[in-house]
Amino acid sequence: MIKAIFFDFDGVILESAHIKTKAFGQLFARWPEKVDEIVRYHIRYAGVSRYVKFRHFYENIVKLPYSKAIEMDLGKQYSELVLDEVKKAPFVRGIEAFLEEYNQKLPLFVVSATPQAELNSIVKIRNLTKYFKKVRGFPPEKVILLKNVMNEFSLVGGNCVYIGDGQSDMEAAAQVNMPFILRVTPENAHLKSTLKHTIDDITTLKEVLTEIYGGSHV
To answer: What are residue 183's DSSP bridge partners?
Structure first.
């Protein structure tokens, strides 16, 4: 029987994943010959912290020294590029009705790679705080966030589900033995054929929960 539902944020609750993809291209536009490679890496590792990606881009793609000062500057620029847009992004279809219904039935959680303070700000301004028992962002990495929340609320992976839109979400769920549902987008469509449970938006989430847990999902 299902005991809790975990959500990624960008691309699952808000239609904001493309905003962050665009921002990575803008942030590294000074290396036009490398931008496509950088954006491809960002898309492939959707759900991995921006700070992990920044380091990879510098050390492995543009091959320049990386430092804490560079990290802080990139983080500031990136937040300036995305924050206002994310706060205005539309909801993924069906998510508002789902949260309104299911927060009365099950504990709901957000586990995201967005930095904690930024995530808190977005959740608050979009009036979502009331739906979630816990909202957790980076740091640490997602699998640790999942484990921490599971321990705090005495949950086991087999009695929960994680809805995400990236390979890192899928891998984090697997590491805690939690069923995973992929919200399919143009950026992650290549993952669809490898997974049993997928949704195009949240309007069909109840049906997939029934597939996983049967009529006992609530």
So the answer is: 199
